[in-house]
Amino acid sequence: MNCCLLLPFMLGIPLLLPCLIATENSKTEEVKHPAGSHLRVRRGWMWNQFFVPEEMNKTRHHIGQLRSDLDNGNNSFQYKLLGAGAGSIFVIDERTGDIYAVQKLDREERSLYTLRAQVIDTTTGRAMEPESEFVIRVSDINDNEPKFLDEPYEAIVPEMSPEGTFVIQVTASDADDPSSGNNAHLLYSLRQGQPYFSIEPTTGVIRISSKMDRELQDEYWVIIQAKDMIGLPGALSGTTSVLIKLSDVNDNKPIFKDSLYRLTVSESASVGMSIGKIMAYDNDIEENAEMDYSIEDDSKTFDVITNNETQEGIIILKKKVDFEHQNHYRIRAKVKNRRVDEQLRKYHTEASTTVIKIQVEDVEEPPVFLLPYYIFEIFEGSPYGSFVGTVSATDPDQRKSPIRYSITRSKVFSIDDNGTVFTTNSLDREISAWYNLSVTATEKYSIEQSSAVPVYVQVLDINDHAPEFSEYYETYVCENAVSGQVIQTISAVDRDESIEDHHFYFNVSVVENNSSFTIIDNQDNTAVILTNRTGFSLQEEPVFYISILIADNGIPSLTSTNTLTIHVCACDDTGSTQTCSNKDLMLSMGFRTEVIIAILICIMIICGFIFLNLGLKQRRKQTLFPEKGEDFRENIFRYDDEGGGEEDTEAFDIVELQGGTVMRERKTRRATRVEIRSLYRQSLQVGPDSAVFRKFILEKLEEANTDPCAPPFDSLQTYAFEGTGSLAGSLSSLGSAVFDQDENYDYLNELGPRFKRLACMFGSAMQSNN
Q1: Which of 207, 396, 471, 751 could join 755 via S-S bond, C-beta 3.0 to 4.6 A?
Q2: One-character DSSP codes across 672-734
Q3: pTM for this structure?
Q4: Rounded Cα distance, 374 and 369, in Å
Q5: Over the stretch 150-176, which tens digit does the pLDDT of each residue have?
Q6: Where does the record place the Cadherin domain (predicted)?
Q7: Where are the domain boundaries for CATH 2.60.40.60 in the chain?
Q8: Does domain 255-361 have CATH number 2.60.40.60?
Q9: Is the pLDDT of residue 9 over 60?
Q10: pLDDT digit string (tens) for 211-229?
Q11: May I ask the CATH class of domain 147-247?
């Protein structure tokens, strides 16, 4: 069995191949075609791979022919095509075995199709040969231009970068077959961007070819072209744009806008106040434009600080200025960048400077004292008008106005127009040792300009107070005291101030003719009193008076005479006093009487308070039911109050119910006789719907809501309706005296069997009376 396969040439010219004959059991042989096609013979089928150019515009393109060696041309064989694309992309002539492509093929979508061929005998419907595979390959043509897939491109490079600095790499892609000629071999070129940039043709790397200054131009657009077929004629191309931005470097120093600034400052300006601004500009941006200002001559009066937000230099006052002392200043300021890289210092060799002229403005100032405060001294006891000291103030302004002085709120000192302070009252150091004064200086030509200075006056001490006992002594001596017994230790005080420590001397007055007691000076500002004999008599000499002289160490020394009173007492064996002089006894008795009287008064007050409480409670019980004696029998009140538990400490007073008691008007029996029958029935029907009862409930509700003494929690008040009673009035004989004696009781016969007894009693009684 043999077959022939007709293959088309690449250029579309059919080539008839000679038939190859092989037996069914022969091995596969490979035969090379002169044009490069490969033919293989296997089991009677001759199969191969077919090449079809892509993008063929024919609607029915002939690819090749399949023919069995068993086909004798009698049209009894039928050829079938199986596999992917069979019937839709590729069709076969069932009689001749010709294969056609009925659709345009695109290698970029699919470059290889694997199909199967089969031959069937139409007379028997059986396959004459087993299926055999063959391949149809779509050959590439240059139909795709290069494309840049990573667009858009953007790069940032520092300004002033040297030549050859890498910027960015662009890459294009070609969908054509890279193994088919040069269809996918690309070359890159620069269409726009010279002379600052260049590109490597094969890699697409963009580099800097010339230095650029961001301050002149901060971004560039570069257009790159990619061509396939290594740029040969007929090649396809694609382009892309690259945005290249220049980042800033600190290659510019700050420069002052003006070479001279004129500022003014008032001499009244406080330290730290801003008096003006200076400004430098820097072509760099962001942190490269941050700058610092400074004063070149290291001024002690002015300083400059930098505003980090606005990059301005703020001139501030470092020390107060005085127009009269210096009315103008000239300083020089400089500016430099805060951070400069070492490789860029060549751009910052010399800092920019400017001159600042500051004019001091004169203002009217208050008087100025020569000293911030004054301290004067004067001895106590100095006469009126004594000189204390002198203060002095001057007008700092040019006109030098005269000054007037005054002392604020002082009755002891005064001051004249020359600033001399003198006394206007006596001074006593023991009353006040220091005086704090405030002296005010006022300009005569401008009274609103004034200033004050503190003046401290110290009153110096003179020895004008003699020493005296430090306390009142109550001294006692026993009748059985022996000679030389210490009965009292005394000390002294002096209100004067001593330069040295106080030292007191004690002695008995020379005029004192009393040898019963003596004194010994301890030389430590104390002295002891001793008995000078044995035995004393309470009845004969109950009291002794001793004059003691106390001298101080002042200059001149002052001496005072102090009397020490000694009472004689009767003592027991242990030395405890039992009975002393009459005076002491009276004092103790007087003290006891006062204590007893005070205790009695307290007892009376307590008893009066108790009686008052009992009286109030009794009165409250008597007035709890004021109508009980008269109308209580006719009114029944039921009051159930739900209290607040243990916290409810105030019980509800039932008197609240008494104000609303409904008192029925007493009717005469004659008036009720006409309507007694109808009213009797109505009285039995009156209930909670009665207007009287509703009015009563509303009154009680209003009283509860407006009661200021009500507890601060909810309460429940219950009122039970007991009826209105008999409309005929009371039948009691207690009030019969108020009625006429000729009252007719015949109407009782009309009230029914229940009143028959009363009708007989009163009816017969009236008849007997008549």
Answers
A1: 751
A2: HHTTHHHHHHHHHH--TT-HHHHHHHHHHHHHHHH-TTS-SS-------------TT----GG
A3: 0.42
A4: 10
A5: 889 999 999 999 999 999 999 998 887
A6: 68-148, 149-256, 257-369, 370-469, 469-579
A7: 50-139, 147-247, 255-361, 368-460, 468-586
A8: yes
A9: no
A10: 999 989 999 999 999 998 8
A11: mainly beta
